[in-house]
Amino acid sequence: MRVLVAEADDEVVGYAFVVLDNLPFWEPRYIPQLVDLEVREECRGRGYGAALVLAVESLVRAENGQALFLAVDPDHNPRALALYGRLGYLPLATDPVDELWAFTDSVGVAHQGVDHVIYLRKMV
User: Fold this and answer.
1) Most C-beta atoms within 10 A of its C-beta, which of 24, 28, 49, 119?
2) What whole-number distance in Å separates Cα of residue 15 and Cα of residue 5?
3) C-alpha to C-alpha distances, 89 to 14, 49, 53, 121, nearest whole angstrom
4) How many CA atoms lie within 13 A of 70 on its CB side?
5) How far is it, in rounded angstroms, from Cα 57 to Cα 50?
6) Is the Cβ–Cβ distance between 73 and 36 less than 8 Å?
7) How many domains in the chain?
């Protein structure tokens, strides 16, 4: 797993988490996968999200990857879905799927839930 950070004026304005290989505690459906992209609300619309995604794509290419996958909730995050579409990501299916997840945090508290997502892919 790698974390990429976007900075502006010596402040962190966003980050991207990418899983490049299976992890001992979690195996995403598709690998490599961008599993989290966040840009501070007041910094959105300035290109930081696109720059982070492009940096992740470069990282995947450097690791000899051929494609990058990601999942997005089309109902609750249409802005992200539009960004990924502009960057050339294509859906693997037309209908969202319910993706179950669960983990135990560093203090031993269990968390679980369901994400309603569409998986996207771009050849890099």
Assistant:
1) 49
2) 4
3) 20, 14, 11, 5
4) 27
5) 11
6) no
7) 1
Which residue segment(s) compose the domain that 20 sits in?
2-123
Residue 93: closest CA among 112, 120, 66, 114:
120
Domain CATH code at residue 116: 3.40.630.30
**Residue 120 has which token pair?**
């996207």
Provide the sign of the torsion angle of the four alpha carbons 88, 85, 79, 116, taken in this order. negative
pLDDT tens column, 13-49: 999 999 999 877 777 789 999 999 999 999 999 999 9
Q: What digits encode the pLDDT tens for the residues 87-104?
A: 999 999 999 999 988 888
- For residues 100 and 105, give the distance between their C-alpha atoms in angstroms, rounded to a whole number: 17
